[in-house]
Amino acid sequence: MIPRTITAQTIASRESWSSIMEAIKKYWDEGYYITDFDYGGGYYRVVMSKGTGWNGQAIRFGETFPKEKIQELWDKGYYITNAMHDGKDWIVVMSGVEDCRSQSWFTRTNWNDFKDTIKEYWDKDMVVTKLACKTSGGTTVYCGIVSKMTYSQEQKMKYYSGTPTPDIIDLCEPNTVLTDFYDVDGGVFAVTASKTGWEDQTLGVKSNWDSALEFIKKYWDRDYSLTTLSYYNGIWLVAMSK
C-alpha cells in the first residue's frame, strides 16, 4: 500500500532477517514506518518513511501465508500494507491505516485466474494495494491484497513484455502512476492508478543496488519519494513519485 503522503525517507539494507529486524525497530523508534521492501541479491532492502499518517506497525511471517496472524491484527484495526516472499517465508507488514475500511487477500496458481479475481474485487469497489508472488518447484503462487479505501481510486492492469526499461512508465495515462509491479513470464505486470495523491513519477531500472541507490538519492534531492521498489531477475525497479 502506498501512503498518500511522505515527508522523509531512509532505506535499511541487511543480509540477514535478524539484522534487518534490528534496523527496522531502530527506525520505528525514530517515527518511521515500512512503506515498501523487497529481497534480492542476498539482501533485504526496506524503505522506511515518515509523514504517512499511519499509526502503528507490525510484522508477521510464516512458510505459509500467515492468515491466522493477519486475522488477529485485522481485529485490532491493522491492515496489510506490504507483503513479499524471501525464498523461505511469506513476510507481511500490517499498519494502522485510517483510510482503509476493509481488506481481503487471495492466492492463485493460475495467472489468468489471478487477473480475473482482481477484476471481481474491482467490481466490489476494492482496489489492489499490494502484489506478491512465490515461485518454488516450477509453481508460482500469486498473491493479491485488495482494500476498500475511504477515497476513490481508478486502477488498470498493464503488462510490459521483455526486459524492463524506463519506458515502462509510458504505460501510465495522464495523472496516473505505477503503484506495484513484479515479473511474470519474462515481462513486468503492473498496476496503475489515478487519484493516489501522487501525480508525477519517474522509473529507474538498475542492474545493481549501488546504481539503484544513487538513482534514489538523486530524486530524493528533487523532492520525490520512493513509492515502489521491486527486484526483478537481477534488476532493481525503482518508482520515484511526487
Largest sheet: 3 strands, antiparallel
CA-based gyration radius: 16 Å
Summed over residues and divided by their number, the pLDDT gives a mean of 92
Helix vs. strand class? alpha+beta
Shape by Cα distribution: globular
Helical fraction: 10-25%
Amino-to-carboxy terminus distance: 16 Å
What is the overall number of helices?
A: 4
List SSEs in N-to-C order. Answer: EHEEEHEEEHEEEEEEHEE
Strand percentage: over 45%
Q: Strands across the major sheet, in which order?
A: 1-3-2
Number of domains: 1
Query: What's the total number of strands?
Result: 15
| Uncertain parts | none
What is this structure's SSE topology?
Elements: E1 8-14, H1 17-29, E2 33-40, E3 43-50, E4 57-62, H2 67-74, E5 79-85, E6 90-95, E7 100-108, H3 111-122, E8 127-136, E9 139-149, E10 154-160, E11 176-184, E12 187-194, E13 201-206, H4 209-220, E14 225-232, E15 235-241
Name the descriptors.
alpha+beta, 242 residues, 3-stranded antiparallel β-sheet, 15 strands, 19% helix, globular
Structure description:
The protein has about 240 residues and is of the alpha+beta class. It has one domain. The chain has four helices and 15 strands. The protein has helices at about 15-30, 65-75, 110-120, 210-220, and strands at about 10-15, 35-40, 45-50, 55-60, 80-85, 90-95, 100-110, 125-135, 140-150, 155-160, 175-185, 185-195, 200-205, 225-230, 235-240. Strands 1-3-2 form a three-stranded antiparallel sheet, with helices on one face. A hairpin with a 2-residue loop joins strand 2 and strand 3. The longest helix is centred in the N-terminal third of the chain and has 13 residues, at about 15-30. The two termini are about 15 Å apart. The mean pLDDT is about 90.
